[in-house]
C-alpha cells in the first residue's frame, strides 16, 4: 500500500486494512479498538457517546436529500445505533474558493431543518476556505455527543445462535439517488435518498427489549454491515434474498449497471439483531413508525458458516456475501 | 420487476432442475463462455442445485480479463502525458499493468475519468478542446457497435480530439483457437447472450460442424441458464446431431442485429489480437478502419511498451480454456486476490477466479 486510492475509502476490505494497519497501530486506545459507530465514554457519573464523520458527497444536492441533511442525520444515527440519545453537534465546513454563497446558504438552511427534525443542537463549528480545485465545492465534518440510556449494552458479543436479523426497510435508495443525480441517468421513476434521522425509531426499539446489536448500513451497504457483524465470530448469518426489499427503481438501476443492491449505501436504514422471542414484537413496533414501515426479518444467526454471511437466492441456491472488495460508486457519502 | 422476476421463479427453477435430472446420462462438461453467465451461475448459487454429473467451466468471455498487460501499459503511458485525458469503463481501473494500474495513476494525478458509455467520452472531448481524449475500447461484439456509433458521431460533429485505443475483440475466432487445443474436452457450450444478440447464431456454426460439439445461446437470468443446460442435456439424451440451439429467443435472432453489424463493419477492421492467457489469436481483434483511422490514437501518437512478464505459476491460460479450475492454482486466494490480482481471471468482477473468490466456491461447507 504505497499510495491511497479511492478504494481505500470504500468502506470495504481496503478501508478495514487501512484502519487496522495504519490507524490502530498508532492510535491504540482500547475504546477506539472496538471500532463501534460511536465511542461510549464514562465522564464522571455519566456515560456519553461521541462520534465524528465527514461528508464529501457529490453532487451536494440530490433527490431526497443533500450534504447538509446527511451531515446531521449520519452523525445522529451513528450515536443512536450505539444506544445513545443524540444531543449536540459540531460542524466543520471546508469550502472551495468560488462557491456561490447561495449554495452555502442552502446547505446551512438544510442543516438547520435537519437538526430540528432530529432534535439536536449545533453548538460549535469552524469554517475554512481553500483554493479553487483543492476541494470539490464543500465538505462537512460533524461530531456528535449523546447520552447513553440506562442499562443499554449493545454489542456483537451479545449475539447468539437463533437471533433474527431485521432491516428497517428497502435497501440501496441513497446510493442510486446520488448516482442518478450525478450521472443524469433516470431509472424510471424517481428514486429518492432515504436519508433520515433514526433516533426516534431506535429509542422505541430499545424500549421494547431483546435487542442485541444494531448498525446503520451506510457505505458498503448491508453486505458490509453484516460482514462486520459476523467477521471472526463463531456464528454465521443466513439472509433470504426474497425477504430483502429492493425498490423497483433501485432494482432496475442495479440490473442495468451491474451493481448488487446488497452493497449499495443507505442513509436512513438500520439492521437490528434481536432475540428470536422478541423478533415479532420488535417488527411490529418498527412497522408502526414511518421510518420502519417496510421493516422485515431478512435472516438469522446460525451455528454453521462461522464468520460468513450466506445468501439464500431467489431460485433456491446459496452463496457467500463477502465484504466489498473496492470502490463501488465514488463519493456517495 | 417485469421481465426479470419471471426468470427467477423458484417454482419453475425446480421444474427445470427435475427435467435436467431426468436427462442426465453420465458426465457432461459445459463451458459457459461469457463472464456474465459465470457470475450469475455463482450469484444465484446454481452449481449446488445441479446434478453432480454436470461440470461447469468458464471460458474466455470476460473482456477486461483477456485484455493483455501491454494494453494496460499503453493506457497508463497515455495517461502520463499531461495533455491527455483517459476515459474508461470503471472496471479497467484496477487491472494491473506491468508496474502500475490506472487506479494508481489516477491517485497520482493522471486525468482518468470513468464513463458509462463511449458517448460520454465524446462529451468530455467537446468540453476540453485543448486536450486529447482517449477512450479505452474494451469489449466484445456487445460493446463494439456503441463505440462505432460514437466514432461516427465524432466524425460527423468534427470532434477531432476524441480517440480510441482499440482493444476490442471478437468471439468466434477465440472459440475456434480454443477448440484447436487437443487437450480440451467439452460436451457443450453455453454461448454468450448479448454478443449473440449482435452477431446472431450463424458465426458459431463451425463449432458443431467442425468440432461436433453442441451449443446453446442462453440468456443471463437463472432460468435461462438452467433451461440452456437442459437443452444441451436433452440433445445428447435424445441422440440429436449437435447444432447451435437458441434458448434466448426473446433477444437473439439467428442473423443477429444487422444494423449493429453494419456499424462494426463500417468503423472497424479485423486484425490479429493478443489475449491474456491465450496468446495471439489471428483475426480476433478490431482496429479502426481506414476511413476512421484519424480517431485511432495509435495512428496519431504511437507508444511502444516492452513485452511484460507473466507469472509462471499463474494458471489463467488453463482456466480460460476450462482445463483447470481456480482452486487448482497455487496463487489463488494467497498471492492473487481481487485487491492484488496476479492473473487475468482475478481482475474483473466477471473473471472466473474473481467469481470463485467472491462467491466462495467450496466455501459453503460451514
Task: Describe the protein.
The complex is a heterodimer of chains A (333) and B (366). The model of chain A has no long low-confidence stretch (mean pLDDT 93). In chain A, a hairpin with a 5-residue loop joins strand 13 and strand 14. In chain A, 30% of the residues lie in helices and 26% in strands. In chain A, the strands form 3 sheets. Chain A has a 7-stranded mixed β-sheet with strand order 9-11-8-12-10-13-14, with helices on both faces. A 5-stranded mixed β-sheet of chain A has the order 1-2-7-5-6, covered by helices on one side. In chain A, strands 3-4 form a two-stranded antiparallel sheet. Chain A folds into 2 domains: 113 residues, PurM-like, N-terminal domain (60s Ribosomal Protein L30, Chain: A, 2-Layer Sandwich); 165 residues, PurM-like C-terminal domain (Phosphoribosyl-aminoimidazole Synthetase, Chain A, domain 2, Alpha-Beta Complex). Chain A contains 9 helices and 14 strands. With 366 residues, chain B is of the alpha/beta class. Chain B folds into 3 domains: 131 residues, Rossmann fold (3-Layer(aba) Sandwich), CATH 3.40.50; 151 residues, Rossmann fold (3-Layer(aba) Sandwich), CATH 3.40.50.11740; 43 residues, no CATH class. In chain B, 36% of the residues lie in helices and 17% in strands. Chains A and B meet through helix 8, strand 13 and strand 14 of A and helix 1, helix 5 and helix 11 of B.
